[in-house]
Amino acid sequence: MSAATINPVEPSTLWHRNAVLIQLLGISPVLAVSTTVVNGIGLSTATTCATFLCYITASVLPRINSTTWRLLFFLLIIASYVSVIDLVMRVYFYPLYRAIGIYVPLICANAALLYRMETYASCVGSSAALKDSVKTALGFFWIILTMAVLREWLSTGSLFSQLELLKPFPGSSFDGPINTEPSGSRFRFPLLQPGALIILGCLVAACNLLQKTLPR
Amino acid sequence: MTGIPTTQLAMQCSPQQTAGRDTAHIMRLVVIASLPGVLVSTWFFGVGTLLNILLATIAAVAFEALSLRLRQQPVRWTLTDNSALVTAVLLGIAIPPGSDWWLVISGVFIAVVLSKQVFGGLGQNLFNPAMCGYVFLLLSFPLEMTSWKIPVAPRDALEFNPLTFSNLLTSLQFTFHWPGTGNDIDGLAMATPLLEQKLAASSAILEILESGVTPLRLLDHESGSGWELSNIGYLLGGLFLLYKRIISWHIPLSIITTVIALSLIFYSENSVFVYGSTYLHLFGTATMLGAFFIATDPVSSASTPRGKLLYGMIIGISMYSIRVWGSYLDSVAFAVLAGNLLVPLVDRCTLPRIYGHSRTGT
Amino acid sequence: MKIASNRDRTRAVRSSSLAGGIHPESHKQHSLRSVIMATPIPEALIVPLQQHQGSPAEPLVKPGDSVLKGQILAKAINSSSLPVHAPTSGKVINIGPYPFPDEFGSSQHAIELRTDGQDQWIELNTVDNWQTLSPEDIVDRIQQAGISGLGGAGFPAHRKFDAKKPMELLIINAVECEPYITADQSLLREFASEVISGARILQYASQATRCVIVTESDKKDAIEKLRDALPESDLELLELTPRYPLGSEQQLVEAITGQQIPGGKHPVDIGILVFNAGTAKAVHDAIELGQPLISRVTTVCGDSLRTPKNFQVLLGTPVSFLLSLCGVDLNQLDRLILGGSMMGYTLQDTDVPVIKTTNCLIAGSRPEFPIQPTARPCIRCDFCSSACPVSLMPQFLYQSLHAENYATAEQLGLPDCIECGACAYVCPSNIPLVHYYRAGKLELLLKQQEQQRSAYRKERYESRKQRLARDTMQRRGSRRRSVARPENPDVSDDSLQTFSRQQAKIEIADAVARVKARRQGTDRPEQPASRKNDE
Fold first, then answer.
1. Proportion of chain B above pLDDT 70, given as a percent
2. CB spacing of B16 vs C378 below 8 angstroms
3. Scanning A212, B81, C146, C532, which has the fewest C-beta atoms within 10 Å of its C-beta?
4. CATH architecture of the domain formed by C10-116+124-338
5. Is residue B82 situated within a structural domain?
6. Do B120 and B38 share a domain, yes or no?
7. Chain C residues close to B5, C-beta within 8 Å
8. Does residue B3 belong to any structural domain of this protein?
9. Do B125 and B144 lie in a common domain?
């Protein structure tokens, strides 16, 4: 398949072809980090940066789509940027890194990112890729935010706990243990994986229902 | 040719008669068989269990009717197969007495709607609905699910009797939190009897019997033998189901045999605090309820005769392992769910040899 | 093969080691209260030309002929066909399609006979001592008497005999496990010695080493009568614990010998012959008395009849006649069943005749046979698989057929189902399982036929292609006389293609060479370098 024969897919939108809810891509990071709102914001910011950088690179590099090893190249691109982001997080956001650092390399396995890089970003110019990256990242962002809000509120009754994790340059005296799960949870089910899947399922169902009823 | 003029004669494929035991009848018998255990439990621990069962039944029927309406199925006709009733009764037995009403209702919601109706209704669910609901509650509200609240009025502190009328009101208050009661509820809040006897204590019944007093003393409210007696009640109910041929002997026998075998292998005088005696494994925990009522749920259990034996063995091993080496004493639910997971594979591997075919299946 | 020992003549064999089985209520007491009654001769008889499994008979009479009782009306056309005889004397009115008793309500060719009430026998061909006949003769006479299996399957009796293979065991099946049917039991009560005589004839004809009469242990009166008649012969009487479906061949053979009939085969393949007790009596009548098969014992019962009983019915008697003999109450009559309550099918038309395989007629009322409630979803309870006598898994069969997955159903053993109805009898969800299996078997048969047809079509297409290619080659070959091309008669499609391409190349090279040669002024055609030996 040469570059000339790939037609770029439609540019992503926030709603209509949302990566997670409609195409059901990239679910694993969504489930993993949406336990609290803060965690969710942290990882989606990292994903945004990664998306941005990767799309620009993919659109700039010439003829990358014409080789048989294009997926390998894309993965290499994503991995290098994610490593950079990982290091940045480690240096400047150490508490946040302690909380969600495990999931940052998981961005490499984000199927939505890889899929769109191959089918869109590498086929169009850099400005279109830039716009698309913003849209994809935002689409991801609002899903994670919704899930995190739901899960945290249902389980603890509060939102935005541990907000201090988002502060950069926290200072050197931060050494203590971090728990990724909020304390004081009375209803533990949404914090667990089955609960996350069920809530995601309900979101997808709500999405389908809205799509059917609202004329677009 | 003159024939007998007949109006429309009925047309039906053979056989022309049936045995007459339909689904509703079977489910009804299961509920009746669980009554001995429930009554014994009520005698010792108050009306909490009965309240749970009642609340669960109402919620189950309501949720099932709602889901059937959403699925556009005939509501009234489907409800008459009594399957929601059985789920509700089993869940009501499992949830500790004195639990809040919202606990029961959310458990029933998961059981009826999410693990049965969403899969396609009766006969389509993969997992035991009552156990799905119970596991959901156990994981979500670990504190509430391990505390039994038994009513004791301060006046009767000398004589512990959970069945007086005032204690009935107290039970209702536990469940429904009527406004105005505040902190006046006086109850005996204890952990599950199971936790108290973390397989380390000796059997209360055996103690009483050995001490030489009349066996009627067993029925005393204070004797502490309530839990074991209610398990014996469930055993009697299970034997009734066997006699009526509602369930087959394969699953209960293999579960009980496996648990007995494992507990005999691992039990020794020195490790009594960890492994527990065989008697306690059978009657000090919910094994009887699980073996006769929960694991034999027809929809989610194995179908072939040899498959049932294997399924029972898997459940018995899981039950014992989780209880002894795991962190949950109420391992019946997890064990049954683990067995349900393996049922399709077990069924496929244990198809019976058809008449006239050789062992290799030609 | 181990068979019940000959030491005790009568022995109860426990049949509970067999798989499956149910114990429905037998409903047999009403029709056993009286003896077998001979029916009066109806006005008209309808005698179908095919009352057995196999090919129909060919009529020998035409409308207007007078016939006597026992006269042959239609002859057997081949070895799988049976002749048909006149059940009573009278006149042939018509030969044409008439309602036929089967579950589809079809019409088949039959001879309508207007009876004259004289009941005059034709001259019978008897023999003094049948033991002077050879076994092949006896088998031939059995076929000429039109005897098929009277137990319900209707397999021509003579086809079970194979002169090359002597049998080890002959079983006379008087088990009659199905509810409502008491034809064999009442036959044994009154004609035990005839049945035993028929059994001896069958044993002689089949050269069987041993002969066993088997019945259920709760048929006390029949057992008593058999025991009284037994000392005359060397047969054994076995009593089996009642269960349904013990009377089926497969279960019977396993109960008696402990062996199972291999899948797809018949009992004769393992040296066992099974005959119904009624068939044995018909053989006695045919050989000892010279009478062809013209009547049979049929149970007529049901709650809407005033007097249920067993009848000795002339074949071809319409069902309505029998019902009126028993005093049917039309207001109560809700369901008419041909056969027992487990495997019988409902009739819509009371004009159908009694044929050789009609063993029972049930005129049921609504309370006796309530309408089956709507089926509920399968709760996977396994009552069905504990009831299945063939050790199938009816539950899985139902699921795969419901999903129209016929390949899986075949793998699970759908062709082995004997359609006894035990599974549907016990099903708590009232699922019409046998209905599904019958439809599934039909689908499998249709698929198999379709496969055969398409294989045939493919073969014809292939040979047509070859033929056309050969014709083209021949035409080309005749235009090029100077170039001798060896013809390869058995080439496959592909090599024909390459042959013509290669040949084209060769011809082109030839032509080029010829042109070159002409230009160079020589007439000698060169051997083209590109000619290949394409053998």
1. 76
2. no
3. A212
4. 3-Layer(aba) Sandwich (3.40)
5. yes
6. yes
7. 330
8. no
9. yes
Q: Which chains touch C (3 or more CB pairs under 8 A)?
A: B
In this prediction, residue C478 carries a pLDDT of 74
Q: With 90 as the cut, is the pLDDT of residue C183 above it?
A: yes
Q: Tell if the CB–CB gap between A188 and B142 is shorter than 8 Å.
A: yes
Residues B333 and B138 sit within 8 Å (Cβ to Cβ)? yes
Pair B63, B101 in one domain: yes
Is the same domain home to B294 and B309?
A: yes
Whether residue B185 sits in one domain with residue B245? no
Q: Would an 8 Å CB–CB cutoff place B74 in contact with chain A?
A: no
Q: Which range of residues forms the domain containing residue B142?
A: 24-191
Shortest distance between the Cα of B260 and any Cα of chain C, in A, equals 27
Segment B266-275 long-range contacts (CB within 8 Å, at least 24 positions apart) = B266/B324, B272/B200, B273/B198, B273/B199, B273/B200, B274/B199, B274/B200, B274/B324, B275/B199, B275/B324
Output the pLDDT for position B238: 96
Q: How many CB pairs under 8 A join A and B?
A: 13
**Terminal C-alpha separation, chain C:** 60
Residues B239 and B167 in one domain: no
Looking at beta carbons, which residues of chain A come within 8 Å of B140?
187-189, 195
> Is C142:C286 a contact under the CB 8 Å cutoff?
yes
- pLDDT tens digits for A130-174? 888 888 888 888 888 888 888 888 888 777 777 767 777 665 555
Is A189–B114 a contact, with Cβ atoms under 8 angstroms apart? no
Instruction: State residue B149's pLDDT score.
Output: 75
Q: Given CB atoms, is C392 within the 8 Å cutoff of chain B? A: yes
pTM comes to 0.83
B187 and B311 fall within a common domain: no
| Chains with ≥3 CB–CB distances under 8 Å to A | B
Beta-bridged to residue C10, according to DSSP, are C237
Chain B CB contacts of A187 under 8 Å are 140-141
- Judgement on whether residues B182 and B199 belong to the same structural domain of the protein: no
Q: Please indicate, yes or no, if residue B8 is contained in any of the structural domains.
A: no
The verdict on a CB contact (< 8 Å) between C382 and B81 is no
Structure confidence by residue, pLDDT tens digits, C83-141: 999 999 999 999 999 999 988 888 999 999 999 988 889 888 888 888 888 888 999 99
**What is the rounded CA–CA span in Å between residue A152 and residue A157?**
7
Range B3-20 average pLDDT: 81
Distance from the Cα of B359 to chain A's closest Cα (Å) equals 42
d(CA B361, CA B350): 12
**B305 shares contact with chain A (CB less than 8 Å):** no
- Average pLDDT over every residue of C195-203: 92
Q: What total of structural domains would you count in chain B? A: 2
SS3 C253: helix
Residue C156 is classified by DSSP as B
